[in-house]
């Protein structure tokens, strides 16, 4: 996928040619060659070379020889620089029982770096162009945007940017939770206690207040009914589904939701208003997070199509009835049945997700749909994908992009002093407050302190990087001091490194005027060049595993290399004008890569900190 011939790609091509020749010599069809040659960069472990491959182990069961014997025969087919002037390979060694280690001539890094530096960032990498729907964020209407939604949004935004950068047509999809019995409760609460002006002014807070008030009032009714239910045991069986009778408020909520299901005009308008007010408030947060969507669509918009879906299921023989409810049996797949409609006619999440999928396929014709959803929904989505395949909704590749939980220090639950789940806005407010304190300590003199926006960039960078630096399947811990450190594996450290390079380049007078076609000699720092040339390979890895942590790890490693390089080579003091010019130019390219990487993570790169 790379946009130029990187050292890794050079090794991959060379090894592939040698492997094909080896298979031909052994009268084995090239179609049996391993698809993955498992090229691994050896980083700073110079004794093992620049790259290593385990291809001999993959070929062993095909060729019926030992990996060591295969490795020796493949190595004999690889051209070396001393025998072939077009080769960049100094030597190839076999380690252990068949590992093939490649040692490259430094010239390949200079040549590749020269080609890389002549490109203009951002470079749109040449990938297979396809249409991808990425569903992410997906908060609930009338409820706070919590820390889990924040991780989801930051991850989904990264995946969207990555796919756009690699030449895919991306449709960013926000699937709002705006249907279910809770909206019957909210409608009752609004009709009894709601204030339109208060909701218009502070939507989420007021709607949540109404929902909590309903819950508390219903609880009081329940408690008042408890003595009666004890004296009349038969009352507990009045509603088998709940195991107990409904209170007056609970019955009203059920009635209001049933009216919603049947298309009651008043309740539909109320729901649309709740949705509109919620989106209005969430839009402010999305703008702050620099996250955008092409489609924002609630579950409620698909309800009208349920009979058509049930007709399709019935026609294919998959829709069954069980105690008045409509289900799809997945017994043959070893899964529990999928409930699509309750006995009272109420739809469930699977119903609405199938309708949403049907709509997406018919209207947008995507090649792939990524569902960015937490680990806890793994079984749910497996069931969804199986049912979708059964009924022919399989024109696109469906993939669950799962992620772990978010905790506070000591892996404790993040919550407010009152014990409530902490919201995204509260997290941002706390981190921004701490970032302001850090900046005041760093710049006691207000005259030298960067603008307030820089402080917000640092706070948001700290949050985003902390959420993206871990493998998406791992849980994330919010350690606020570590997140805001300018010296550790943090967003502020990467931002500081970029600002430091920008300052050096600005002082040298080339930041805005450097030309990418300038020539430079051989004396450059190979370690930095190696690191810069890994950029496209790292993005390939991110695409393959749909995770941000390889890029975060890469940027942290690049920042370390750059800071170590400058400490060892104070460029501005270098009296050799040609070498100084070369190294400044290398810093310019490094700054471009660092900025591009941060942009993919959704992190701003201020030039002054």
Automatic annotation (TrEMBL):
It comes from the Bacteria. GO terms for biological process: arginyl-tRNA aminoacylation. Residues 494-609 form the DALR anticodon binding domain. It is found in: Cytoplasm. Its main location: cytoplasm. Keywords: Aminoacyl-tRNA synthetase, ATP-binding, Cytoplasm, Ligase, Nucleotide-binding, Protein biosynthesis. Its EC number is 6.1.1.19. This is Arginine--tRNA ligase.
């Amino acid at each position: 996928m790379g946009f130029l011939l990187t050292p890794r790609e050079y090794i991959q091509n060379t090894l592939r040619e040698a492997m094909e020749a080896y298979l031909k010599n052994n009268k084995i069809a090239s179609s049996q060659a391993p698809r993955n040659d498992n090229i691994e960069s050896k980083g700073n472990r110079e004794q093992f070379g620049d790259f290593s491959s385990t291809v001999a182990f993959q070929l062993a069961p095909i060729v019926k020889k030992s990996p060591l014997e295969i490795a020796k025969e493949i190595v004999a087919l690889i051209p070396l620089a001393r025998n072939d002037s077009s080769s960049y390979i100094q030597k190839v060694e076999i380690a252990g029982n068949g590992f093939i280690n490649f040692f490259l001539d430094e010239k390949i890094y200079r040549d590749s770096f020269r080609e890389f530096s002549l490109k203009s960032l951002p470079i749109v990498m040449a990938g297979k162009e396809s249409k991808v729907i990425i569903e992410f964020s997906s908060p609930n209407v009338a409820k706070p945007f919590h820390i889990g939604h924040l991780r989801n949004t930051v991850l989904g935004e990264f995946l969207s940017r990555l796919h756009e950068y690699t030449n895919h047509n991306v449709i960013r999809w926000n699937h709002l939770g705006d249907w279910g019995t809770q909206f019957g409760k909210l409608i009752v609460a609004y009709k009894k206690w709601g204030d339109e002006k208060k909701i218009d002014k502070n939507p989420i807070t007021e709607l949540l207040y109404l929902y909590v008030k309903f819950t508390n009032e219903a609880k009081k009714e329940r408690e008042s009914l408890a003595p009666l239910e004890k004296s009349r045991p038969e009352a507990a069986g009045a509603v088998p589904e709940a195991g107990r009778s409904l209170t007056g408020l609970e019955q009203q909520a059920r009635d209001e939701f049933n009216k919603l299901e049947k298309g009651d005009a008043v309740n539909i308008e109320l729901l649309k208003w709740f949705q509109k007010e919620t989106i209005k408030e969430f839009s402010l947060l999305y703008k702050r997070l620099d996250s955008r969507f092409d489609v924002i669509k609630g579950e409620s918009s698909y309800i009208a199509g349920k009979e058509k879906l049930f007709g399709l299921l019935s026609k294919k023989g998959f829709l069954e009835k069980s105690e008045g409810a409509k289900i799809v049996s997945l017994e043959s797949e070893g899964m529990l049945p999928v409930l699509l409609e309750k006995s009272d006619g109420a739809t469930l999440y699977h119903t609405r997700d199938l309708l949403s999928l049907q709509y997406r396929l018919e209207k947008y014709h995507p090649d792939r749909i990524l569902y960015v959803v937490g680990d806890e929904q793994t079984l749910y989505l497996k069931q969804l994908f199986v049912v979708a395949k059964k009924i022919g909704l399989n024109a696109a590749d469906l993939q669950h992009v799962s992620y772990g939980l978010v905790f506070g220090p000591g892996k404790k639950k993040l919550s407010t002093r009152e014990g409530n789940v902490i919201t995204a806005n509260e997290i941002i407010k706390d981190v921004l407050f701490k970032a302001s304190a850090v900046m005041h300590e760093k710049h006691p003199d207000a005259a030298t302190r960067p603008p307030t926006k820089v402080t917000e960039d640092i706070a948001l960078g700290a949050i985003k990087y902390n959420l993206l630096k871990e493998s998406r399947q791992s849980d994330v811990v919010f350690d606020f001091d570590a997140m805001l450190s300018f010296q550790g594996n943090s967003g502020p450290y990467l931002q500081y490194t970029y600002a430091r390079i920008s300052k050096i380049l600005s002082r040298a007078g080339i930041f805005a005027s450097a030309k990418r076609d300038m020539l430079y000699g051989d004396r450059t720092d190979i370690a930095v060049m190696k690191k810069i040339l890994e950029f496209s390979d790292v993005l390939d890895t991110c695409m393959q595993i749909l995770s941000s942590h390889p890029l975060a790890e890469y940027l942290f490693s690049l920042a370390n290399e750059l800071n170590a390089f400058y400490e060892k080579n104070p460029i501005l003091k270098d009296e050799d004008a040609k070498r100084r010019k070369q190294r400044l130019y290398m810093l310019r390219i490094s700054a471009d890569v660092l900025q591009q990487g941060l942009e993919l993570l959704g992190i701003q790169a201020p030039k002054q900190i």
